[in-house]
Design a protein that fits this description.
60% strand; mainly beta; globular; single chain
Length: 60
């Protein structure tokens, strides 16, 4: 995860795959500090083709 100009590894989280394997949920054990974050991800589809993407969100 990227916060401002620094990259932070995500540690101490619970992950669950739901919705027939179409949704990944990650629950952090601690709240995030206020700021804008960008999440970058990489997943592999059923055909072994990698998919990447990113999204941003803000914590107030």
């Amino acid at each position: 995860m990227i916060h401002g100009n620094s990259t932070m590894p995500i540690e101490h989280l619970e992950i669950a795959v739901v919705n027939d394997g179409k949704t990944l949920r990650a629950k952090l054990h601690h709240p995030l500090e206020a700021g804008t974050y960008r999440v970058q991800y990489r997943a592999v589809g059923p055909d072994n083709h990698p998919m990447t993407g990113d999204f941003s969100f803000t914590v107030r």
